[in-house]
Write a structure and sequence with these properties.
Two copies of one chain form a homodimer. Chain A is of the alpha+beta class and 333 residues long. Chain A folds into two domains: 69 residues, no CATH class; 254 residues, Fumarylacetoacetase-like, C-terminal domain (Fumarylacetoacetate hydrolase, domain 2, Alpha-Beta Complex), CATH 3.90.850.10. The first copy, chain A, is 20% helix and 27% strand. The longest helix of chain A has 16 residues. The first copy, chain A, starts with a strand and ends in an 8-residue tail after the last strand. The model of chain A has no long low-confidence stretch (mean pLDDT 96). Chains A and B meet through strand 7 and helix 5 of A and strand 6 and helix 5 of B. Chains A, B: Keywords: Hydrolase. Chains A, B: InterPro entries: FAA_hydro_N, Fumarylacetoacetase-like_C, Fumarylacetoacetase_C_sf.
């Protein structure tokens, strides 16, 4: 199944199903008011949602309409926990060099993960208001999974069975603020403003062979202001999503609807390009001796789309966002 | 006003008002279903809640009943964001020594803060299920505030005006896991299992002169297995809550119901004792040359209660929790 959330002025939005071909949608609110509602009552609503999805695909769902990604919020506009790993070790090693930071202990064997804000996600076409270009505005293209309820102490294998949905993520980052927050040991906070999501969340079966070994085996195509930036492949993820979920649940249970991210998709091959500017910058420094690329400016756009290995469009839809200056009045409220 | 949340099987629980003397309560669900609902509609529900509170205090509220803290969840069983500072620098400096960590840069001038899980808080008398005594089980007594909506880029002064409620917190910590997570730079995750709250959240006016300079000017009395552990005073907080909120909102807005914590209450005077075991241990090492105190064992209890300077009971009620082994079946689910 393919899910989207229509903006309707509520905090959780209105649940919709999107047809397999991505062209049509139908409100599913008669079955579950919102995606978080569906995830919390999954066993109860799963079959009725499947029925509605099949009727949508067959062209027989009453009230179906043309799917408009611009009308969408994030599939989960808010969620219980947003836990983002850094499971592409190639990226992590490059970032250590970018931040001039000491090697992360046990980086090859124990996942690293930060907890981000999960109350105020951005939709796929939402503007991104930020306070200052001097903060080093950067995108990070990622894949992620949405979990059902996960018990404390779950094994990686059992954790993988807790995956309900797969999502595509832009984890906005402020690079001028990250190194200090890492040095405090308390982790990212100001360096990680609201995260954005592609419009469509899908059950793993929608990915077919591209959901394999607990990884999203697809390329993430990234464009910055219309120019090719990179298309690294998700298959190079060094920890699979079951391992990431189990890491998160080592001393806590996760409630239904928690999101676990892969961290920036990154490949060893330089030909793949990058899914964030910081990584390109450090590659420039290593390979060319100097950094040539600046961070984003207000008005800049980033576009992200996953593609199957054959080149076909991925099922998540497109993230296409513009960075804008925070409203001048905000600080005065 | 004084608020509590009655367990009723829902994720947000049922809103109740607690009388000024802490003896009686009345369901407020006719005005707002839950505390988060009240915080999201504060301007609309504030006056009706005040009216109900006054009738409760006057003994004329229909349906009032004896207040039972054991029937309470955390005032907010879940909330949009849980952001915990470390605003008692005395504690932070001691912990650096305990963790054998390098000094945190800018620690005196820039607050440090981690983002914790906010989807699954513990009530004041809930057992605390944890996987292993070897993780170094510790309590942390804190004060905190619940915010209304906070705009991105707010000033510390304007942030202080966003405080809606004051709460008392036990920030459970696993000390064997903290140092590694600090060294990764990604911050605490496994080291911070579910956080617990005293039963009653209060509007700042309920504290009278004890809410002053953006700080809770009260002692936090901590007992471990019935023995005195410490009673450090909240007035020594080096950053006030407005500064902590403004730090959190530097690059994001906070939605209504976000909770910002003080970090472990800690005083320079050794006579005050401590509000967590890790701090006592490092003091033992410094003052007596060796650590004498172990961490908590399954079956141990911790009790926390705030007191006004004159010695009277604080308005938050009591946290009294027992640590238990995680259910053996959890990992198999």
């Amino acid at each position: 199944m393919k899910f989207a959330t229509l903006k309707d002025g509520t905090l959780d939005g209105c649940l919709a199903l999107v047809s397999r071909d991505g062209q049509r949608a139908v409100r599913a609110s008669a079955v579950a008011a919102s995606l978080i509602d569906a995830l919390q009552r999954w066993d109860e609503v799963h079959l009725p949602l499947c029925d509605l999805y099949e009727s949508l695909n067959a062209g027989s769902a009453p009230g179906a309409f043309a799917f408009d990604p611009a009308a969408c919020a994030a599939p989960l506009p808010r969620c219980p926990q947003w836990l983002d790993g850094s499971a592409f070790l190639n990226h992590g090693r490059l970032m250590e060099e970018a931040f001039n930071a000491p090697p992360i202990p046990l980086f090859d064997t124990v996942p690293v993960m930060y907890q981000g804000a999960s109350d105020d996600f951005l939709g796929p076409h939402d503007d991104v208001p930020l306070p200052s270009e001097a903060d080093g505005i950067d995108f990070e293209g990622e894949f992620g999974v949405v979990t059902g309820p996960v018990p404390m102490g779950v094994s990686p294998e059992a954790a993988l069975a807790c995956v309900r949905l797969v999502v595509q993520i832009n984890d906005w980052s402020l690079r001028a603020l990250g190194p200090h927050e890492m040095k405090t040991g308390f982790g990212f906070l100001q360096a990680k403003p609201s995260t954005a999501f592609a419009p469509v969340a899908v059950t793993p079966d929608e990915l077919g062979e591209a959901w394999r070994d607990g990884r999203v085996q697809m390329r993430l195509q990234v464009q910055w202001n219309g120019e090719r930036f990179g298309e690294p492949h998700g298959g190079e993820m060094n920890f699979h999503f079951g391992q990431l979920i189990a890491h998160a649940a080592r001393t806590r249970r996760l409630t239904a609807g928690s999101i676990v991210g892969s961290g920036t998709v990154s490949n060893v091959s330089r030909a793949a390009g990058s899914a964030c500017i910081a990584e390109r910058r450090v590659i420039e420094k290593i390979d060319q001796g100097e950094i040539r690329t600046g961070f984003m400016r207000f008005g800049d756009r980033v576009r992200m789309q996953a593609r199957f290995d054959g080149g076909a469009d991925g099922p998540f839809g497109v993230i296409d966002q513009r960075v804008v200056a925070m409203a001048a009045t905000a600080g005065a409220a």
